[in-house]
Specification:
With about 170 residues, the chain is mostly helical. Helix content is about 80%, strand content about 0%. Helix 2 packs parallel to helix 4, helix 3 runs antiparallel to helix 4 and helix 4 packs antiparallel against helix 5. The longest helix is centred in the N-terminal third of the chain and has 32 residues. It is flat, with a radius of gyration of 27 Å.
């Protein structure tokens, strides 16, 4: 009986050892096969088209978040629902900023791209401020605080619009 238990224990030990060895070998092959440089690379050849497509995508995001903000202000959606929508839109804008930054714009397109990136950052700031409003609504804060932030949101929109116009004017 003891011999059988020792025999079973040694079989289990061998099985565990083999499993560990297989894991180590598999992990070493995985490390070997994974690329060393995992930075995102974007290859753009038509900078005008790339910027136009980015502007269209950003416009859709901003339109969606603006519509949702209006619904929030009209009590058609809850602050929590709005915050979820706004956070996703903010992530999308950050993605667009990263794409433009890593696109390798030629010297003739750099100023236009830089201004549009600035516009996207202002729009992202605007979204952040709308989230603050949603949180204030949740906390039943006074309307003076909300009105101050709404004024800041309008200012960020105007600054963004000016940067977009400047980006368009700087296109080659």
């Amino acid at each position: 009986c003891i011999r059988d238990s020792l025999h079973m224990a040694s079989r289990k030990g061998i099985a565990v050892t083999v499993a560990i060895l297989v894991g180590v070998v598999a992990a070493s092959f995985l490390v070997y096969l994974l690329p060393e440089d995992t930075t995102m690379k974007i290859s753009v050849s038509d900078f005008e088209k790339h910027l136009d497509i980015t502007k269209e995508r950003a416009s859709m995001e901003i339109t969606g978040v603006d519509d949702s903000f209006k619904k929030l202000m009209n009590n058609e959606i809850s602050p929590d629902e709005y915050v979820s929508i706004a956070e996703i839109s903010s992530l999308q804008l950050n993605s667009l900023i990263t794409e433009l930054t890593k696109s390798g714009a030629t010297q003739e397109w750099t100023e236009s791209y830089v201004n549009y990136i600035g516009a996207l950052k202002k729009l992202n700031d605007k979204i952040t401020e709308t989230i603050v409003v949603a949180n204030l609504i949740t906390d039943d804060s006074n309307s003076n605080s909300i009105n101050e932030i709404l004024a800041k949101i309008k200012q960020l929109e105007a600054e963004s619009f000016d940067l977009i116009k400047e980006s368009d004017n700087l296109r080659p």
